[in-house]
Amino acid sequence: MKVVAKVGSKQIEGWLEPTECYSVLLINNCSKGTRFLIWSKKQLTAAYYPASDFEIIDATLSSQWVAQIDLNGYVELTPKEWLDEGFWERFNDSDPDAEQIFFKIMALIDAEAKQETLCL
């Protein structure tokens, strides 16, 4: 899934470039609304952004995603490997194994639809 950040979005300031094309790493639908996890080259980390801050360029769901439904009925489309107990804590603590898993999956998601062919 590819999106373009909308011009004027306050949440992306300092993190993403308006009009640049980004791969959606996961989709989270929760009480805060629908959010996309996107890698920020500026901050060198992944962060959640409101889906409303983006225009969808390619709505194709990633083959890396599985659906997870929590006890409140909220749905997340995410790589299975990222659902492992403690994965995000290990990743945020710079655990080399968690980082390797994260970047491997991110590369697979990026490769599914080339940015240069979708976002001219």
Write the element-wise H/E pattern from the N-terminal end onward.
EEEEEEEEHHH
Q: Helical region count?
A: 3
**Overall number of structural domains:** 1
Largest sheet: 5 strands, antiparallel
Distance between the termini: 16 Å
Mean pLDDT: 91
Low-confidence stretches: none
Sequence of strands across the biggest β-sheet: 5-4-3-8-7
Question: How many individual β-strands?
Answer: 8
Would you tell me the structural class of the helices and strands?
Answer: alpha+beta
Please write out the topology.
Layout: E1 2-5, E2 21-23, E3 26-30, E4 33-40, E5 45-50, E6 54-58, E7 65-69, E8 75-79, H1 87-92, H2 96-112, H3 115-118
Antiparallel strand pairs: 1-2, 1-6, 3-4, 3-8, 4-5, 7-8
Structure write-up:
This protein is an alpha+beta fold. The chain has one domain (2-118). It contains three helices and eight strands. A five-stranded antiparallel β-sheet has the order 5-4-3-8-7, with no helix packed on it. A hairpin with a 5-residue loop joins strand 7 (65-69) and strand 8.
Q: Notable features of this structure?
A:
three-stranded antiparallel β-sheet; five-stranded antiparallel β-sheet; 120 residues; alpha+beta
